[in-house]
Amino acid sequence: MNVQSDILRKLNALLNKHRAATPDPSEIPLLTETVQPAEPMTESAVTAAAEAVPQSDLSDTEVEALARDIYERVMAKLNTQISSELREHLTERLSSIIDGTVGAALADFKQELANTVSDAVEEALLDRAEKMTPPDSSHPT
Fold it and tell me: Is it the case that residue 31 has pLDDT exceeding 70?
């Protein structure tokens, strides 16, 4: 009875702990507000936004040169990043392929070496057996 009451006391403590950890449903916030989509910009708003952008004193050729410089810098950075990521990807991919190929080649080489050693041992044993066999005395030579 004592063991059962101890188990029941522990079970009640565990249930009370769980009940205390569960928040009251009224305390859980609900998302009840609906979000309205933004109104599309009118032409006058677009014009006002464009006028708010400061005008530069650069000529068309200077703007083109600046755009070309920015383009070249961005492309150089992208090429560097793409090159390193491509190198990493290829290294991972090729290393697994090379590991598999080298493993298969080593297994084939070990098998051929074992076969060669076995053939050499067999041939040596046959030669040795022939040398140890006394000549046949029933046939005159």
Answer: no
**Rounded alpha-carbon distances, angstroms, from residue 9 to 1, 6, 12, 17:** 12, 5, 5, 12
pLDDT in tens, 33-46: 565 667 777 888 77
> What is the tally of helices (H) and strands (E) in the chain?
3, 0
Contact partners, residue 41, CB within 8 Å, separation at least 6: 49
CA angle (84, 88, 90) in 5-degree steps: 115
Q: Which helix (H) or strand (E) holds 21?
A: helix 2-21
d(CA 131, CA 125): 10
Whether this prediction's pTM lies above 0.90 is answered by no
C-alpha dist (Å) from residue 116 to 46, 106, 127? 85, 15, 16
Integer Rg of the chain from CA:
43
Mean pLDDT of the chain: 79
